[in-house]
Amino acid sequence: MAEATKHATLTVNGTSYDLPVMSPSAGPDVIDIRKLYAQAQMFTYDPGFTSTASCDSHITFIDGDKGELQHRGYPIDQLAGKSHFLEVCYLLLYGELPGATALEEFETIVTRHTMIHEQMMYFFRGFRRDAHPMAVMTGVVGAMSAFYHDSTDITDEHQREVASFRLIAKMPTIAAMAYKFTVGQPFVYPRNDLDYASNFLRMCFAVPAEDYVVNPILSRAMDRIFTLHADHEQNASTSTVRLASSSGANPFACIAAGIACLWGPAHGGANQACLEMLREIGSVDRIPEFIARAKDKNDPFRLMGFGHRVYKNTDPRATVLKQSADEVLELLGVEDNPLLQIAKELERVALSDPYFIEKKLFPNVDFYSGIILEAMGFPTSMFTPIFAVSRTVGWISQWKEMITDPQMKIGRPRQLYLGETARDYVDIENR
Ligand code: CMC
């Protein structure tokens, strides 16, 4: 916990209150208002948490004005370029890059936890075939607490560790099974001789009728998508995981809550919404119509895949993914795909439009990830499950950090009440 280095004074109706100000290792100072209610009988008001730090953390740092993202101090472009997903998982979980032996051990442990309890197959079969894979994932991951009783005691460090491995390892298996179920193909079991990304691609695209050879460029692109989405500080789904676990709930239940939150179109669901929007636009000559709608205050339509709560310059994940998109599209020979043409033209038009420039709205990670995943052959409904696979390690790392924080309290926001004041009950015949 940071020590107060400065002080702020809040004056209300002539009475002043001294508030400690804490300086972070990077980023803006933070006014500590924890004792404000006790001192002044006042709350602060910040729906949407636009000016509120909900916790302290050592994991991820974002400078939204400069467009920077760092995990444990390492810039995301270096991690995306030189590292790989499981190494980044280790970094997020343990705070340092692993040595060769530690990495090998970690990779072996994750690989050996990828199978799911065979009984869970029947759980999948209870869903309708047209269920959204995010609905299936929310249910199945929540149900893990009914299958893995020996890793639900959050007070036991070993059980927390095992739960972490299980979640990171089994999430691709669950996502791939959710996909296979919706297309009516047999489930494909994980294979221990494949790396994390290749294994996922194979579980999604292999069929028993023929051999599936993983293309290394696609596997690299998949790994990069996982790496770029691994953690993102206190975003909505991570805050959901933290809030859910602040009550002492088990990790599988908390991660299921995170998955449910991620599904929304303002968050992880934006990659699916973005591709659906490109389809709705349909042709390059309709772009001006949609740009006009996005700017119209009376139209709820927004350009999906544009804008970010924190990034007001550029989304550094989008910069890396844009390069990956070019590589993958070239490899697959689909540069002239009509949807991709619309995406490129939309990006060009929006980036030169004064509305988007003034409001600092840039393409975000979901704009490019959707394009890559579409080219790789994933249906749009799988885009957000893939985001969930990647973000699981971020949720777990933040959860572990919170559980071991001696200051941890149940999260319990207050409110600005604007409803009726106390009044007497009226019997039904008198209403
Ligand atoms: N298209 C058109 N106008 C927009 C857009 C957009 N995509 N995003 C923001 N604006 C406008 C908004 O209308 C507002 O205008 P005004 O100041 O005149 O009222 C201004 O820009 C600020 O927007 P805001 O809603 O106050 O900003 P926010 O920080 O609350 O919302 C956001 C951030 C990501 C929810 C929003 O930009 C958005 O809805 N984008 C589309 C959905 C999307 O792509 N989400 C993925 C985010 S990145 C992946 C992730 O973290 O999950």
**Side-by-side strand order of the widest sheet:** 1-2-3
The gyration radius over C-alpha positions equals 23 Å
As a percent range, the share of helical residues equals 40-55%
Distance N to C terminus: 55 Å
Question: Mean pLDDT score, rounded?
Answer: 94
Q: How many beta-strand segments?
A: 6
The global form is: globular
Structural class: mainly alpha
Succession of helices and strands:
EEEHEEEHHHHHHHHHHHHHHHHH
The low-confidence parts are none
Q: Tell me the β content.
A: 5-15%
Structure description:
The protein has 431 residues and is mostly helical. Helices cover 50% and strands 7% of the residues. The protein has 18 helices and 6 strands. The strands form 2 sheets. A 3-stranded antiparallel sheet has the order 1-2-3. A 3-stranded antiparallel sheet has the order 4-5-6. A hairpin with a 2-residue loop joins strand 1 and strand 2. The radius of gyration is 23 Å and the shape is globular. The chain starts with a strand and ends in a 28-residue tail after the last helix. The mean pLDDT is 94. The structure holds carboxymethyl coenzyme *A (CMC). Carboxymethyl coenzyme *A binds at residues 232, 235, 266-268, 270, 294, 302-309, 359, 361, 364-366.
